[in-house]
Design goal:
With 228 residues, the protein is mainly alpha-helical. It is built from eight helices and no strands.
Length: 228
Amino acid sequence: MEEKNNMTAERSLEIITEQIERSRQMVAKKTGQSLYIAGLCIIGLALIIGICILLTNNMAYYLLYILSPIVIYGVDRYVNRNKPKVPDSFVSNMVDKTWQTFGIFAVLFFVFVNLYDLLMSHMESPEVYARLVIHPFRIILLLFGMAITINGYILKSRWMVVCGIIGGIGGFAWESFYVTQTLVGWLGNYTNSNYCGIVFGLIPGFIIALFAFIGMMLPGMMLKRKSL
């Protein structure tokens, strides 16, 4: 009798483990599809914003990145409109909550920083403002990489973890060490200064597109291929 109970308990544990793994695979496939779509949307938006800045020399077009969650949500809903919904599970809830947390922190931080920079630009002298200004892009890239890495651990995807670390830390380091400004300054010393504005407008869009590919499209493709 005791042996039968032990076998029943072991079988129950096996069934639970199989269900969790099956749920993880389903969520991984859906997450991979969503990451791939999000990467494409951000790359497209980065190219559009870069072209607009190139043509108008107006940095205010960077504010269009606020629309990225709406664009991603709309495209994702349209692509998956006829596909069955992934059932709610512990794994899917963890993935959803991670991205919701990232979205809340990123959007609120972006809005706060822009309001703060605008206020400081009117209250302080240009010299003081240059020391007080906050650049949100590096922090958002770091949060972005953290969200992808955490999801990689949840879904047991090594590719996702590696890409999240490279995208987040790499983007943060790039912006923290002002690599874009250094490249523009170097270009101004060796070429016509008219090219500086063009490069300064295009490089940020290129960097965003690059890290969207590394942090979103690449792990998305790997997750989709692994789940097939």
